[in-house]
Design brief:
With about 220 residues, this protein is of the alpha/beta class. Helix content is about 30%, strand content about 25%. It contains six helices and nine strands, in the order H-H-E-E-H-E-H-E-H-E-E-H-E-E-E. A seven-stranded mixed beta sheet has the order 5-4-3-6-7-8-9. Strands 1-2 form a two-stranded antiparallel ribbon. The radius of gyration is 16 Å and the shape is globular. The mean pLDDT is about 95. The structure holds S-adenosylmethionine (SAM). The site of S-adenosylmethionine (SAM) has 26 residues, from strand 2, helix 4 and strand 4. S-adenosylmethionine binds next to strand 2, helix 4 and strand 4.
């Protein structure tokens, strides 16, 4: 795995493009600038790594579009040392971005083959997150509460269990909608245990499956 001068240049251009699209959090942009996205692509598709597009990673799943990764990460308002649950490890790219921000990441993936691949690849890269295989639509209660929870698949509704697993002051970022389009939602648990809800633009994610997601075909 080589991160050449050319790759770094392409990454800088991508980061500038994201800035132009309204991502104005310098810390998040720097994190995207540090993680070699081409490491997540097989050699024949390297040309796609620094385009602002989602891309298939097998098993009918995708590595999210860089703009989406940046937008969701920005909404999470991560501080160094935050305990973060990511639901939908996928390729592991988003997990690396969260770790670059200094988060202590718990990441859960439903698909066994993606789980195994991401876990071994990230550990090899030196990103020692806590990896789990299972149904993240229920959250990961054993290690809760979390400062932030990020859902990287489209949910039909906001699972109550996820809100319950937030610390006071914690943020949940989750795309909610139908199978074609989902609205990005941020829910914050206030210090007095109440909630605020904000809605942002529409995105298009692969479905969140499992108990509080869409019915799985498995
Ligand atoms: N964060 C990923 C990345 O950086 O590559 C992108 C994730 S992809 C858009 C969504 C992922 O969510 C898929 O890998 C899918 O298998 C996973 N997923 C769907 N439902 C899930 C569930 N209930 N629990 C855990 N993972 C789930």
């Amino acid at each position: 795995m080589i991160d050449s001068y050319k790759h770094r240049g392409l990454r800088r251009s991508l980061v500038n493009k994201l800035k132009g699209k309204g991502i104005d959090d310098a810390i998040v942009l720097e994190a995207l600038g540090r993680v070699p996205r081409h490491f997540f692509f097989s050699p024949e598709f390297l040309g796609h790594a620094y385009q602002d597009k989602a891309f298939p990673i097998g098993e009918g799943q995708t590595i999210s579009q860089p703009y989406t990764v940046a937008f969701q990460t920005m909404l999470l308002q991560i501080k160094k040392g935050d305990k973060v649950l990511e639901i939908g490890t996928g390729s592991g790219y988003q997990c690396c971005i969260l770790m670059e921000l200094g988060a202590d990441v718990y990441t859960i993936e439903y698909n066994k083959s993606l789980f195994q691949k991401a876990k071994s690849f990230l550990i090899k890269m030196g990103y020692n997150a806590q990896f789990f295989m299972g149904d993240g639509s229920k959250g990961l209660k054993t290690f809760s509460p979390y400062d932030a929870i990020l859902v990287t698949a489209g949910a039909p509704t906001v699972p109550k269990s996820l809100i319950e697993q937030l610390k006071p002051g914690g943020r949940l970022v989750i795309p909610v909608g139908n199978d074609k389009s989902q609205k990005m939602i941020r829910i914050e648990k206030t210090m007095d245990g109440k909630f605020t809800k904000e809605e942002f633009a529409n995105f298009s994610f692969v479905p969140l499956v499992g108990e509080f997601g869409w019915k799985s075909s498995k």
